[in-house]
Amino acid sequence: MARIAIRVQEHDFDVGAEYALLAGIAEVGAIAAFVGQVRELPGGGLSALTLEHYPGMTEKMLARIADAACERWPLDAVTVIHRFGRLEPCARIVLVLVASAHRHAAFEACEYVMDYLKTEAPFWKKESAFGKDSWVEAHASDEAARERWHAS
Amino acid sequence: MARIAIRVQEHDFDVGAEYALLAGIAEVGAIAAFVGQVRELPGGGLSALTLEHYPGMTEKMLARIADAACERWPLDAVTVIHRFGRLEPCARIVLVLVASAHRHAAFEACEYVMDYLKTEAPFWKKESAFGKDSWVEAHASDEAARERWHAS
Amino acid sequence: MAQFQLDPAPTASGVTVHILYFARLREILGLGEETLTVAVGSSVASLLAALAARGEVWEAELGGQRLVRAAINQELAAREAILPDGAELALFPPVTGG
Amino acid sequence: MAQFQLDPAPTASGVTVHILYFARLREILGLGEETLTVAVGSSVASLLAALAARGEVWEAELGGQRLVRAAINQELAAREAILPDGAELALFPPVTGG
Question: CA B126 to CA A124: how far, in whole Å?
Fold first, then answer.
């Protein structure tokens, strides 16, 4: 059984510490990680992103995505941490860590979790830039990224 | 220009600290990471792996792989650290960190670097298990993994 | 919490649905949640149609011109899904986390 | 460092090649490096053939039955590559790092 850890929180997380929790498993040969962070706008001017979520459903959905990854690849551990609230440029938003015996399983499962998280986990970003707030629109490219997991 | 850091060393590295060096770049929205570590044999019994390399060529080849990734994807930073010498189970072997504005570029470039590193960087593993030493044989699957980057 | 009654008027056999609105939808509608009673057997689609019939921003947001996702009891739900009594129905724009 | 002379005997126009053996190859051949003088215009393939002609483990490892990679001056090199004077030629099994 893979160790699955899901956290939805306002406070920051420690990438090194979360990684270290998975590094001591003897069967693990590969750990893939992804950190999403608040990116400055191309010309600057971003004050912050504010992330809203749907408490309860969010955790369920993230757990379901992690479970689905464990059914699809032989994984030893999956950690998913996602923040909400006001996040300034360079702030961490999301961490996905996947440990497996083999690197392709770890890489693919990590990307799979991110692709489903982006399109199914109930989070919404509001962007504050140049003194104006606007809700970020969903990208068709994110839907397409998820759909390729159905095809393969 | 992407920041490229290549290190080939006997001593361990700090995943959290290496990650933190890339996390403060304002244009970065995505950091993908891979850590390869010494995996115990299925039934146990591994004493250690000993990694030999070709000093000089190793660093050149890793830098070339990182450069090729930067030409192929819009990356902000690439870090590649690879250890040599005697490494016991759970010891870290390799770290690849890739920072980009977008997650697919980060994921793909990270996997690309690992696939080329596995098949072109001059490292060789000797396995010590049950009191016997044997050189690890190359896997055809690693060649196949690299070849898919030619096709796409 | 606002209390509306939709046409057709609820009967003794109506079901109660607690609706949650998120993100842009909540802001534009000016409402975070409400409880409605609808006919037994009502689907997500029929409830959306009833809400859109309120006109103005309701029609603009829920009338089919913009993408709206629905979740029943915290599970993503299709438009044909039937609303169970006591359901928590969440309505929200396409998600943008990660 | 061992010093061999290969047939055909080096001429005044011969080139010097410093050969490095790595990993399993170094252990089986019992040699980490050596310097040879070969005819001008010699390729990696012709040098490998000359080394294999030493027989026994040399033939078994370098005679074509096992995969051997070559690098000239720390760049991967094809079998047809011509050895420049003063070249560092590395011979090694397929790599297994990462």
Answer: 50
Contacting chains of C (3 CB pairs or more, <8 Å) are A
Exposure b/e, C31-61, CB count within 10 A at least 16 = b: beebebbbbeebbbebbbebbbeeeeebeeb
Distance CA D82, CA A71 (A): 52
HSE of A38 in the Cβ direction (CA atoms, 13 Å)?
A: 25
How many whole angstroms separate alpha carbon D32 and alpha carbon D17? 14
**Integer Cα distance of A147 and B149 in angstroms:** 21
In terms of Cα–Cα distance, which of D64, D22, D14 is closest to D41?
A: D14
DSSP-derived 3-state class of residue C7: coil
Residue type, B32: A
Phi, psi for residue A114 in degrees, rounded to 5:
-65, -40
Give the residue from B134, B46, D49 showing the smallest Cα distance to A27: B46
Residue by residue, DSSP assigns D1-45 as -EE--PSSPP-TT-EEEEEEE-HHHHHHHT-SEEEEEE-TT-BHH
What is the Cα–Cα distance from D50 to D64, expressed in whole angstroms? Answer: 12
Choose the closest CB to A57 out of C23, C67, C74.
Answer: C74
Q: What percent of chain D has a predicted confidence (pLDDT) above 70?
A: 88
Q: What is the ipTM of this complex?
A: 0.90
Q: Is B105 on the interface with A (CB under 8 A)?
A: no
Residue located via tokens 């609820």:
C10
Longest dimension (CA), chain B: 51
- Neighbouring chains to A with at least 3 Cβ pairs closer than 8 Å: B, C
Q: Is B70 within 8 Å of B2 (Cβ atoms)?
A: yes
Residue A42: per-residue pLDDT: 86
The DSSP output letter for B4 is: E
Tell me the three state secondary structure of residue C48: helix
Q: Between vectors from CA D45 to CA B116 and to CA D80, what angle results, nearest 5°? A: 65
What is chain C's alpha carbon radius of gyration, rounded to the nearest angstrom? 13
Token output for B34:
């891979």
Q: Tell me the mean pLDDT in the region C16-39.
A: 97
What is the distance, to the nearest Å, from the Cα of residue C49 to the centroid of all Cα atoms in its chain?
Answer: 9
User: Which among B53, B74, B71 has a CA at the least distance from the CA of B117?
Assistant: B53
Cβ-based neighbour number of residue B131 at 10 Å: 7
Which of residues 63 through 82 in chain D touch B, CB cutoff 8 A? 67, 71, 74-76
CB A116 within 8 A of CB A132: no
Verdict on whether the full-model pTM lies above 0.90: yes
pLDDT digits (tens, 9 = 90+) for B101-133: 999 999 999 999 999 999 999 999 999 999 999
- Cα distance between residue A37 and residue A125, in whole Å: 12
Q: For D67, which residue in chain B has the nearest alpha carbon?
A: B138
Cβ partners under 8 Å of residue A146, min gap 6: A115, A116, A118, A119, A120
